[in-house]
């Protein structure tokens, strides 16, 4: 992340990947001062964006990340936890079941909404937009939101239980993201998503 001696990364262990001749597990430590407290954007940009963009490395995969408890405590986290979500959805004694809408690109808004409806009616608790879906010419965000929420409402009525869909509000500007989130809320959506990377 930096050439400054004080903050250089430290590779403290290297293990060969079993049954390979040219692959290794590298254990790398970074000084916690390199990361802004409570910022997922900074953490992911530093570890995933910066390190994975390093041209000298031909192939790289992040296997695990361990963070100090003191740093983790700087994140506010969600306003509610799993218990509250279970109460909201009235679903106990089993895992929540969710999926991402596929195909992720190319559907019309109406067909996208149909996939949302069919997935939720078929037993999923929630679906989510793929990170690549924003507001492309073949399906603008407003059309996707309308048909997706229609699918959620129809599935809830058919199944007699609470269902949901994470609408992707990611946009080029913060103003556009707020506008999309407001529109989603007007349609009755209680949850949305933002793609950070």
UniProtKB/TrEMBL annotation:
Main location: plastid
Highest taxon above the source species: Eukaryota
InterPro entries in the record: RuBisCO, RuBisCo_large_chain_AS, RuBisCO_lsu_C, RuBisCO_lsu_C_sf, RuBisCO_lsu_fd_N, RuBisCO_lsu_N_sf
Location of the Ribulose bisphosphate carboxylase large subunit C-terminal domain: 83-196
One Gene Ontology biological process: reductive pentose-phosphate cycle
Location of the protein in the cell: Plastid, Chloroplast
Cofactor(s), by name: Mg(2+)
GO CC terms of this entry: chloroplast
A Pfam family of this chain: RuBisCO_large_N
Reaction catalysis annotation: D-ribulose 1,5-bisphosphate + O2 = 2-phosphoglycolate + (2R)-3-phosphoglycerate + 2 H(+); 2 (2R)-3-phosphoglycerate + 2 H(+) = D-ribulose 1,5-bisphosphate + CO2 + H2O
GO MF assignments: magnesium ion binding; monooxygenase activity; ribulose-bisphosphate carboxylase activity
EC number: 4.1.1.39
Cofactor annotation remark: Binds 1 Mg(2+) ion per subunit.
Keywords: Calvin cycle, Carbon dioxide fixation, Chloroplast, Lyase, Magnesium, Metal-binding, Monooxygenase, Oxidoreductase, Photorespiration, Photosynthesis, Plastid
Annotated ranges, domain Ribulose bisphosphate carboxylase large subunit ferrodoxin-like N-terminal: 4-71
UniProt subunit comment: Heterohexadecamer of 8 large chains and 8 small chains.
Family membership noted in the UniProt record: Belongs to the RuBisCO large chain family.
Listed name of the protein: Ribulose bisphosphate carboxylase large chain
